[in-house]
């Protein structure tokens, strides 16, 4: 079994953009657990000879704010269960939102490695805006731009250090 990396975070932070950048090929979803909504994409990737699977979560979350929050919580809990490493994606344009704090609270309780990924850092000006994400209480973070790809090499270097 290769290491499983789950990408979590609230909608619109750029999880799927990052997923598409990280994966080399998509996997068919083989799921023996029936009756569970697995709202996720699976892919395979590799960095410096280390292979891993990537799960993109929360693709179809829709509805009212309440449903929204419950769904995100469920997605994060599922990811915590099945992944070996969690990438928690946040958005430097929006800063820390209440929903980010909710997700951070769940992630602070686990012993699995969590990498905080500050996305949409498209230019040097935004590097300093990323400081506020220390307040999530999850330690250091990596800044990236999923659309340009900058920082994703450093992210992958960090990722393979933890497995
Ligand atoms: P998800 O809901 O977390 O999966 O987010 P998506 O990957 O669907 O991206 C949401 C929006 O953010 C899209 O319009 C993306 O083009 C945009 N986006 C994603 N990554 C970046 C980034 O690094 N910089 C900027 N400026 N926009 C981004
Ligand atoms: Mg998505």
Automatic annotation (TrEMBL):
Binding site for GTP 1: 9-16, 56-60, 119-122
Domain of life assignment: Bacteria
Known role: GTPase that plays an essential role in the late steps of ribosome biogenesis.
Subunit structure: Associates with the 50S ribosomal subunit.
Family, similarity comment: Belongs to the TRAFAC class TrmE-Era-EngA-EngB-Septin-like GTPase superfamily. EngA (Der) GTPase family.
Protein name as annotated: GTPase Der
Annotated organism of origin: Flavobacterium piscinae
Full-protein residues shown: 1 to 163 of 436
